[in-house]
Amino acid sequence: MTSSPAVRSWHAALAWLLGPGVQRDVLIEAAGDRFTTVRAGVPPAAAPGAVRLQGLTLPGLANAHSHAFHRALRGITQAGQGTFWTWRERMYQVAEGLDPDSYLALARAVYAEMSLAGVTCVGEFHYLHHGPGGVQYADPNAMGRALLRAAAQAGLRITLLDTCYLAGGLSSEGRPEPLSGPQLRFGDGDARHWADRVEALAPDPHGMLGPHARAGAAIHSVRAVPPGQMHPVVAWTQRYGAPLHAHLSEQRAENEACRAAYGASPAAVLYQAGVLGPRSTMVHATHLTPSDVELLGGSRACACFCPTTEADLADGIGPARALASAGSPLSVGSDSHAVVDLFAEARGIELTQRLATGQRGQFSADDLARAATVAGHACLGWAGAGEIAPGALADLVTVALDTPRLAGATEATALESVVFAATAADVRSVVVGGRDVVRDGRHLLVDDVPAALSAAIRGVLG
Ligand SMILES: [Zn+2]
Question: Which active-site residues does the annotation give?
Fold first, then answer.
């Protein structure tokens, strides 16, 4: 005997719908984990029994680029001056201390912080695969499985972007350097061994690793994967129709080393290796030439911007407007988790363009909200998520409009208020797949998120 899926309904005072935009009095119904009906203009009295959602309700937010363990560095790396490269040294020190148990505790707390911020799906760019010295755990996917478990315990969906990481960088003469020190934990020897290990995660034919989890792949960067090793990664993603991500041109030094090594830009190297396409996402895409922009846009590769991390690490400002005009969808990620706030990431795309060009209004609030919702989910392989529409996954994020930051918001510009002024602290409730995860600003699965973060970070930093 099969029982029919649970039916739930919500009545949103205001909801942002793809197409019509912000609508008033929206009745939203779901059966199990999918929406069945979405109707605007339904007076509250006509929806008895529906859960009332005050404020502005959005679809679930997708955090398309995360390295969960970087959260332990927040604040610490702000002391002194530093560069991207000194930051990386501190990051390696944190990586050195993690094992599957401590990683589960840390990632669970970090993902719970994300849930509180309205994130319903995370793309975890995962490269910390093996034990100290590169010695495999009894289960070679023990670290990846810890992340899958962490996401389940925090109540969000995950795309595990299992990352191929083979070289420690490119020498000044442009030769791939061997992995050393903490980097040994990242490596699988070669891309075939990478593929064998990922295959042992046993995705189903659609790439699913469980109801809440999907398998994806990543090429860390042209610094870490020689072009001759990229094909097995691309081929593995083709088998499952899985997403394929890569860091692209975050630093000028990467471009210079890549030119010295391969006589082409990182984007051109990835293009020639067959990495660019509608299932691929290029993260940062900061230092691009006009022809790089054409390669990405023409292949419909998504560009994932992480403006708070890019500002934190002094990376630079990527050509977001040019990429979008060339055909690349945009998504956002909190990457190093200098902060976890997708409203800050989304408006960061527009605000950095304003600073770089002296012009406002290159992206509308609607464009930026799409990057944080439907486009983010699509680049993580979750088509049919990130919008409030019949058939889509039943994810809802309600932002209070009566907080100090948003008080005075009007119905006509509620989306603009939220995209340009809300913070993660304004998220009041979160529903993932029809199930409440955050209610009245409280996480229902992780009792005390600050305590969980603090204990996990203390455990890692010692
Ligand atoms: Zn990253």
Answer: 284, 335
